[in-house]
Each structure stands twice: as structure tokens, then as C-alpha cells.
Design brief:
There is one protein chain. This protein has 752 residues and is an all-beta fold. Among the domains are: 188 residues, no CATH class; 116 residues, Immunoglobulin-like; 125 residues, Immunoglobulin-like, CATH 2.60.40. The chain starts with 17 loop residues before the first strand and ends with a strand.
Length: 752
């Protein structure tokens, strides 16, 4: 006997009150001198029992039933179906009525020694329209619209409508449903006492129209989606399903429920099945708790970011429903970062694995007049595109990274007579392109500044720099007076550095581009001995100045800078007394996590080399090798993992010499060379002096890098776009500036 009371209202066609009770059915077959005939001598009933169950909403259900029913058979009237009323009564004050089910853990009547049994008549799962019982079998009869049926005998843990023996759609003070037990005995039956396991009756109050039963909690409740509406993929490329824990209030108050298991419940999320994990199903305090897993990729249509959906739990045997509106929220699985010309930062919101995608910037484009010139089949001046790199890395919640999104290189200008000698490279290491005089025919008409475009900056994700040397006590600002031989804005900062390759990033104020003249960096400095770092390359974009330098292992430790090893100074004009440095951070470039190489600028001779891949692209020569000037063209190889112009920055083209600036020269002279792309290591361009021995050239692309991630992938652009999907609109790359995407590859609740 099991007795329960719920403490909840119900939502749909369900019940807040459920009653279980058991009764014993016994057939006593008594042998009379081994007589050849048997008959029903009578039916006797055990003690009548009444159970009352009430809920907090003042609804109740009352069941009255005999604790046992016994058939006494003595040997007359053989081969007759014998029936006896079950004597069950139901009462409820619920306006929505009730349902009554019958079940048993065993279908046969058996003798105490188990040597003989009487099987149940209907072992199907459907009602059987029949008013009699086959020989030596037993059955439970009900009536529907005056027709008798033998019901299937449901198992205790799985109830269906076909083992429903009575119901009402309104309240009733006393219902006496016609429910009969029946059997049919013949001479072949072995004499004895046959008993059933307790028949369990389950009474359920139907819910009212305003009733509601709420899910206590759903966790985790956030499902990240990619831009297409699909769930995110893990490192193995598997789309993740969503595993969540659901807690619902107990139907019953006490916890000794027999045969209580997950098969009584069905969970759905957004209308999709959420199969229950039976190993997680448990009763805790006042709750039932279980895990289930749903695949939101099966939704049609797919859910989109910003949507919400409900979770529903149905009770299979009783028909009532728990629900929680807006239990699941669909959120972005990604964060995109475009070009700003400044360092950016990202803090990881959860602990897990993330997919990192970076796209380098393209080189500068050709101008309208350059395009119209149609040099070498109108393919000239095409910029190199930035490379794509991706990979996976684990981060803890609260971890931060620095983001450097490369900027597009500057275009060669449409102008004449050297109005612009330098076409600047893009943010984060793009090399500068240079002007180039080209004269042919009548120089007064055809003179043009056919310069090479600037290279595109690389794009990378790197560890944050936690030290701002502006706040360091060793940092000093000193505006030098006009006429000073050094003309440096600052003295310092000093920074303790080991041997390595570095990028110092200054944020400044009050220094226009016209005032900036470069930078110097020392690993040791005193009045008599100034020891400078190798490969110092400054680059200014707005209020941010990057100074690239190498502290070569062959350079000894400092002697005159106590406890420090670096001092970086910015060379500026001293006319601006409001100039100041707001911050300065230093990054070891070999600690970068992932890099997308930048593309080189185009030139009149060739398209810029594409960035990315383990090796950056060479310039795309658009002409023919039979051209008489072909041997003088500069077509350098792209950077690789260990060689190139420098860590982080691409080479800049040499600027025209003043001796080549006469428009009176009536001959083909020199075209400007383009800047190379930045990257893990930046690409090359036409090196050497700016003279007539090298007609022109284009730069190569910077290399990508995937050494800081797992399952890494890097490549440069391929003109066959069918195998280059990363440059499509599905990614944020627009053919110009670089970009970064950080997305979940695992998250709480995500499971293959």
C-alpha cells in the first residue's frame, strides 16, 4: 500500500492528487473427494479500507476498496465464467474529475509453491471486447457504453489509457464503477489456493483550467548558437547537443515510492525530445532530478540567437504536465572584433575550449588611374589578401587576451610630382609602400606618381601585458627643448627584458603624424656608450605607436641601466608642448597564440603576395617573363616561420632619391615598390637603394602562426574560392581590414 499527496497545482490535463493502493485477489479451489465438478460457492471480501488524500487547494479524492477479494470454488457448474464485483468506490470534489487505473507487478495467479498458475486472459496492450474468459484463465472486466471489455493488465510503472478502469470529467460524491474480476475453471485445473500480487489502483485528479505545475529549475539554461542557428562544434568537428539537469517538485510528500523510475516521465525542450539519462534519475528532498540531452540541430526551423523556448515534462502514466516558460535561452556562440587601429581585449566568460579565428588585413588597393592604365593586362596593383588561421585553446573564466586586428595598407595615391612619397602600411606591422616616377612619351602629360601601396597588418591574439610602464617609477617623461640634437619626447621608460623579439606599444596624446619622426631603443645607455637594439622599426597609427625591436642574444646584458634592460625613446618634433605618453606596454612577439598574416600592397608591376599559411605568398606577377625589364623586377619570397623582414612587421620599400625627381627624364625610370604584409614574421619587399637598377617590384605576404593552439590550420588566399570559404561573407572579412572571431567549442551543457 502506497499513499501520497502532492503539494502542487496542475497545468493541463493532469492531477495534483494521486493515490496508490493494493488489494489481494485470491481464488480458493477446494478439492471435494476428487469430485468431477466445481462451482462458485460464494465470494467473500476482506476489510473495507478508505483512503483520503487532500491538497493545499482544498481538493481531495477518496477511495474505498476491500483489502482482499476471495473466490471460493467447490466443484460444481464447471466450464462457466464466474465474475465478482471489485467493490471500488471513488469520490472527489474536483470540478475537473478524476482518472482511475489498475496495474500489477505480475499477471498470473499462482499457488503458494509456484507449481501451478492461472494466466491472465489479455496479455496485449489493447482493450479486448469480450464478456467471457477462456478456460483456466482470469481477467478484469470493465464496461464502456454498455459493452464489456477485458483490459490489459499494465505494469505498475507504465500506465496507459487502456488500463484505465474509470474516469469522470466532473466532481462526484460517490462513483461506483462497474469493475469485475472473473475466472473460468475446468477439471484440468490443479486444486489449491491461487493468489495474485497486489492489484494497485492509481487515482488521479484532473487539473482545472487555471491550474499550473511548474518545473523548479533547468540548468544550464543557455545554448550558444553559431550564425547559422546550429549549435557549436567541438574540436573534433562534432555539433554539440545540450545536456541539462531538470528538477521538478515531488508528486508525493514521503519518499518510499515503490517502482518509481524515469520511465514515468517524458521531457521535451522546444518541442524536441530530450531523452532522460536513467543513471541520473533520483529523488532528493522534495524534488525529482534527472539529466536529459536534446539536439537543437533537429529543430525546424532552427532557433536563432535571442530566442527563448520552454521545457516540458510530462508524466506518462498520469497525463499531467510540468513546464517552465523561457527555460532555454539561445545566445551568441561567438564574438567578432573588427579593425579599430588600437589594441583590444577580450575576457573569457566561461571555462572551456574556444575556437580562435584570425584574418590578416589586405594590402593597399590600386587607385582609379592605376586601374585605367591597364599595365600588364589590367592585373596590376591587385593587393594581397590577408591570411586565415584557426585553432582551439582552453581558457578559464576570467582569463584575458590582447587582440591586435590588422589594418589595410594605404593605397598608392593618384597624384603627380611627388606629392606623396610614402604610402603607409596598415596597423600591426604592415610595411610602407613608396612613390615611383614613371615617364614615357611626353613627360609633361604622362607623368604620374605610380607608387606601391602599403602592406596589410597581421592579425593576432596574444597574452595580455599586465605592466604599464607609465606607472613604473623608472619611467620619465622629458620634452626636449627646441634645437636639441636628440629631439626626443621622452626619457625612458626602462623595462626589464630578457633576450627576445618585442613590440612596445605607446598610447600618446598631442602628437600628430607630422610631428612623429621615429624611435630609438637602447639596451644600454650612458653618456659615452649608447647600445641600441637591432631591427628597430616604428609605426604610428593615430594615437598608438608601435616600436618593434630585437634584443639579440649576442648583445650583452646592460652595464649602465641597473636592474633593467630596455629604454625606448620616441623621436618627435619638440614644438608641441602638450605632447605626452599615456601608457606603454611591451609584448614578447614569440608568445603570440595565433596569427593571420597580412597581404602585401600591389604595385604597377605585380599584385601583392597574399598573407597567411606557414609561408606567405609571393607577388603575383601579371606580365610576361619575356618583358625586357623582367630581370630587374623584385619578386621576393614570402615570410616563413623563421625568416622574413622581422617578427610582427613587414618590410617597407625604399623612398625615392631626390636625384630621380626630375620630370624632364624622357625614359622609363623606376616604379614604386609596395610594402610587405605583417604577420608572425613579416614579408619582404624590393630591398636596397632606390635607383634605376631595379625598375620596380611588389612585396610578399607575412606568414601565419598556429603554434599556440591545437588542431591548428593556416592558409593564404587561393583564387579558387571554392576551396577558400574563409574569405566569404560567412566570416567577417571584407577584403580590407583584418578581423577576429572567438567562439565556443565547449560550454556548460555542451556534449557530443
Amino acid at each position: 500500500m502506497i499513499k501520497r499527496v502532492t503539494n502542487n497545482f496542475l497545468k493541463k490535463k493532469s492531477s495534483p492528487i494521486i493515490c496508490f493502493f493494493g488489494s489481494m485477489l485470491v481464488f480458493a479451489i477446494i478439492l471435494l473427494g476428487y469430485s468431477s465438478s466445481y462451482a462458485v460457492a460464494g465470494v467473500s471480501y476482506g476489510t473495507t479500507k478508505t483512503n483520503n488524500f487532500a491538497a493545499s487547494n482544498l481538493r481531495y479524492i477518496r477511495l474505498t476498496y476491500p483489502e482482499s477479494t476471495t473466490f471460493n470454488i467447490d466443484g460444481t457448474n464447471l466450464n462457466t465464467t464466474m465474475k465478482a464485483n471489485a467493490n471500488i468506490q471513488v469520490a472527489t470534489n474536483s470540478q475537473s474529475g478524476f482518472k482511475l487505473y489498475i496495474s500489477s507487478s505480475e499477471t498470473s495467479l499462482k499457488t503458494s509453491d509456484g507449481a501451478a498458475e492461472i494466466p491472465y486472459e489479455n496479455l496485449t496492450t489493447n482493450l479486448l471486447q469480450q464478456s467471457s474468459v477462456s478456460a483456466n484463465k482470469w481477467a478484469i472486466f470493465i464496461q464502456k457504453t454498455g459493452i464489456e471489455y477485458i483490459i490489459p493488465l499494465c505494469a505498475n510503472d507504465i500506465l496507459t489509457d487502456n488500463c484505465k478502469i474509470s474516469e469522470s470529467s466532473t466532481y462526484t460524491s460517490l462513483a461506483t464503477p462497474i469493475i469485475q474480476y472473473g475466472t473460468h475453471i475446468d477439471m484440468s485445473a490443479k486444486p489449491g489456493t491461487y493468489s495474485s500480487k497486489p492489484l494497485v489502483l492509481t487515482a488521479v485528479i484532473n487539473s482545472g483550467p487555471t491550474a499550473e505545475l511548474k518545473i523548479n529549475s533547468v540548468s544550464p539554461s543557455v545554448v550558444p548558437l553559431d550564425p547559422t542557428g546550429h549549435t557549436v562544434k567541438n574540436e573534433a568537428g562534432q555539433s554539440l547537443k545540450h545536456k541539462m539537469n531538470i528538477k521538478i517538485p515531488m508528486i508525493e510528500r514521503d519518499f518510499n515510492v515503490e517502482s518509481y523510475d524515469y520511465r514515468k516521465f517524458k521531457a521535451t525542450a522546444g518541442g524536441l525530445d530530450c531523452p532522460i539519462d536513467p543513471t541520473t534519475f533520483q529523488k532528493t528532498n522534495d524534488e525529482i532530478s534527472f539529466d536529459c540531452t536534446v539536439d537543437f540541430n533537429n529543430a525546424n526551423p532552427l532557433f536563432q540567437v535571442g530566442q527563448k523556448t520552454e521545457v516540458v515534462v510530462e508524466t506518462i502514466p498520469y497525463g499531467y504536465i510540468y513546464s517552465k516558460q523561457d527555460a532555454i535561452q539561445f545566445a551568441n556562440s561567438w564574438a567578432d572584433f573588427g579593425y579599430t587601429g588600437t589594441p583590444q581585449a577580450f575576457t573569457f566568460p566561461i571555462t572551456g575550449k574556444y575556437k580562435l579565428e584570425v584574418m590578416g588585413a589586405s594590402g593597399g588597393p590600386r587607385t582609379a588611374s592605376q586601374q585605367a592604365f591597364q599595365w600588364y593586362y589590367n592585373k596590376d596593383f591587385n593587393p594581397g589578401l590577408g591570411g586565415y588561421s584557426s585553432g582551439y585553446k582552453d581558457f578559464n573564466a576570467g582569463d584575458s587576451v590582447a587582440l591586435f586586428v590588422g589594418g589595410r595598407g594605404e593605397s598608392a595615391i593618384d597624384a603627380g610630382h611627388y606629392s606623396k612619397l610614402i604610402n603607409y602600411g596598415g596597423f600591426n606591422g604592415g610595411g610602407n609602400g613608396a612613390a615611383g616616377p614613371l615617364s614615357y612619351g611626353n613627360p609633361d602629360i604622362n607623368w604620374r606618381n605610380w607608387g606601391g601601396a602599403g602592406g596589410g597588418g597581421g592579425t593576432d591574439i596574444r597574452p595580455v601585458s599586465n605592466i604599464d610602464y607609465v606607472t613604473d617609477t623608472n619611467f620619465h617623461i622629458e620634452l626636449r627643448p627646441a634645437g636639441s640634437t636628440e629631439q626626443l619626447l621622452n626619457k625612458g621608460p626602462w623595462a626589464p627584458l630578457d633576450h627576445g623579439v618585442y613590440q612596445a606599444v605607446f598610447e600618446v596624446e598631442g602628437i600628430p603624424d607630422s610631428d612623429f619622426e621615429g624611435a630609438v631603443a637602447y639596451y644600454d645607455l650612458n653618456s659615452s656608450v649608447d647600445k641600441q637594439f637591432l631591427g628597430v622599426y616604428p609605426q604610428k597609427h593615430g594615437n598608438f605607436i608601435s616600436v618593434y625591436f630585437t634584443y639579440d642574444p649576442r648583445q650583452p646584458a646592460p652595464q649602465y641601466m641597473p636592474n633593467t634592460a630596455a629604454e625606448i625613446r620616441l623621436k618627435v618634433k619638440t614644438t608641441n608642448t602638450t605632447a605626452r605618453i599615456k601608457s606603454m606596454k611591451i609584448y614578447e612577439l614569440r608568445n603570440r597564440i595565433i596569427v593571420g598574416g597580412g597581404g602585401a600592397g600591389g604595385s604597377l608591376i605585380a599584385g601583392g603576395g597574399h598573407g597567411g599559411g606557414l609561408i606567405g605568398g609571393k607577388p603575383d606577377f601579371s606580365g610576361v617573363t619575356s618583358d625586357p625589364y623582367y630581370p630587374t623586377f623584385s619578386m621576393p619570397d614570402g615570410a616563413n616561420q623563421t625568416a622574413g623582414a622581422g617578427y610582427g612587421f613587414g618590410a617597407s620599400a625604399p623612398v625615392p632619391d631626390i636625384n630621380l625627381r626630375s620630370p624632364a627624364i624622357n625614359a622609363l625610370q623606376v616604379q614604386g615598390r609596395s610594402g610587405a604584409g605583417g604577420g608572425w614574421i613579416g614579408g619582404y619587399t624590393g630591398q636596397g637603394p632606390y635607383d634605376q637598377t631595379m625598375v620596380g617590384g611588389s612585396g610578399s605576404g607575412g606568414s601565419g602562426y598556429i603554434g599556440g593552439v591545437t588542431s591548428g590550420f593556416t592558409r593564404k588566399f587561393d583564387d579558387n574560392t571554392s576551396i577558400s570559404p574563409y574569405w566569404s561573407n560567412n566570416f567577417v572579412y571584407d577584403g580590407h581590414d583584418g578581423s577576429i572571431r572567438i567562439s565556443y567549442a565547449s560550454y556548460p551543457g555542451g556534449t557530443p
